[in-house]
Amino acid sequence: MFTHDDRHQPIPRCGSTRLVFLEPDQETPLTCLHKNFHVDAAMARITEAPGDDTANAFNIDVRVNCADCGEPFRWIGLPCGYSPAQPMVSVNGLELRAPMAPQSAPDGFGQGGPGFRVDVLVPDPA
To answer: Which of 71, 62, 75 is nearest to 32 (CA)?
Structure first.
């Protein structure tokens, strides 16, 4: 379902260096005002080995849907992938993946783990 406020602008899709623009579906009317929301969050303790009690990092994955119509919301302005050092989004932009640390943790806590980044490239039409 189309949810962009300006029906004349293309919708930016996930991509960290270049954006892919898709034209909005002009036949789908905006029928829901999106006044109520449902948030799904999953918190992860990242340890060195299975069964280890000491967490080396924490991560939260968050999804948001309209509670009335069920339409998912996209996270805007973040690169795609996973990083222990910065928030990122899933390739479809529907899931925020953010590293976290307890307030008492030292600077740099949890930032030594692996990650990945997905760049969306648009072929040059020339």
So the answer is: 71
Which residue carries 């928030």 as its tokens?
87
Contact 82, 116 (CB under 8 A): yes
The span from the CA of 88 to the CA of 16, in Å, is 10
The 8-class DSSP code of residue 5 comes to: S
Residue type, 13: R
CB atoms within 10 A of CB 120: 15
Residue 91 identity (one-letter amino acid): V
Domains of the chain, residue spans: 33-103+110-118
Tens-level pLDDT at each residue, the chain (126 residues): 333 343 333 444 453 333 344 455 545 556 789 999 999 999 999 888 888 888 889 999 999 999 999 999 999 999 999 999 999 999 899 999 999 999 999 988 888 788 888 877 777 776
